[in-house]
Design goal:
Number of domains: 2
Structural class: alpha+beta
Distance between the termini: 31 Å
Number of strands: 12
Shape: rod-shaped
Radius of gyration: 49 Å
Amino acid sequence: MKLATRTGLASLVASTLAVIVLANVAANEFERVLRTRVDEQLRARADSSAAILVAVGDRLAVSELNGVIESARIATPSGVVAVGEQPTEALPAVGPIGVRTVDLGAEQWRLLAVEVLDVPIPGDRAVVEFAEPLGAVEQRVRDVRRRMFATGLFAAIGAGLVGWAFGRRAVRPLTRLQRDAAVLAPDAGRPLAVGSRYGSPEVDEVAAALNASLSELGAAIARRESALAAARNFAGSATHELRTPLQSAMTNLDVALARASHPELVDARAELGRMADSLHAIQVLAEADLARAEWFEDVGVDALLDVLDEVVMRAGSGSDVRVSVVASDRATMRIWPEGVRLAVDNLIRNALRHARRDGDGDLRIDVVVDPDTSTIVVDDDGVGVAESDRVRLVAPFERGGSGGDGSGLGLAIVDRVCAAHGGRVTLGASPSGGTRAVMTLAGP
């Protein structure tokens, strides 16, 4: 949730709580004032008519004036006389002296009992209780409470909108900082830095801290690029310097083998070939670590299939290899073509090395390309790879338990090529019983 929205919601919640509290306090105070006025009216009636009601109350109760007299009850030693309009439900017994409130069903009544002495003759004592319904008071309080809540609700919504508007204005410096940070790129030809002034001291402090970290990061990136470039140059130079004498030695051995085949010469030729392959693999590893965005292209599946066919023909030596694709020929994948070609070549060579021959003496593997998930899957029907070795074998110079004449760099090259694409290579069990290698190419 954005900060401006949080500010608006906070204002809305705070205003709503304030409205609830203030509305209840105001309504309670209003009710207290109205009840006080009822009590004052009852006392005024008691002062002006209590003695009169004691003197003539029994006659008023049976006269035509009874309908216009306000509610009261006169308690004398001879009994209780009720005058005026009385509530539907019976009132409790008269007394004690003072003010009290009684509940009669859905309505409350306010009662004031006063003592009257020496009426109608000296020595007499009577209690007159005046009654006043509180229904009108309660209705007015409810109306006031409802109006206050309605008004307060609109005020709270208005406060929330104002808070949201001010929140959006308050976070503008943060929005500008976020926008500047979003376009940072180490290869943009300018230093890694955001602005220094955003109009808010707090945001300026964050920008200063970010710039300090970006400066250290930029220096680290520059050192890394320099070290990688030096490593690549060294690998390229070393490969070039060693390839020429190796090639010369292999040519001499080929000439010697053409004249006479000796086991020692065959073994020497194989060892030199393995050394040449290792040098080439080291150079490819260095290039994969320094893969650049401009090396990547949108390659159609049909072109990728042509590459696979070429790899299969070169690596398979006539073996029967099934190649299937899950996509239309119009689908494309954004890849580093040379890197993917070499990675797939290593996977297919590795699969053919471990695959079993069928009844016709052919080696069979499956290659599936899925542009929708940017994956290339190679399956063989060999003995498979133990689960405990699946992570180890991806590291450079690691070989399987069966040994072999590989350099131990094939899967490492595949892994580096996948990493250059932002993906990875994983080894697992193949449905055909051997090993499944999955190259995930998530894009540069």
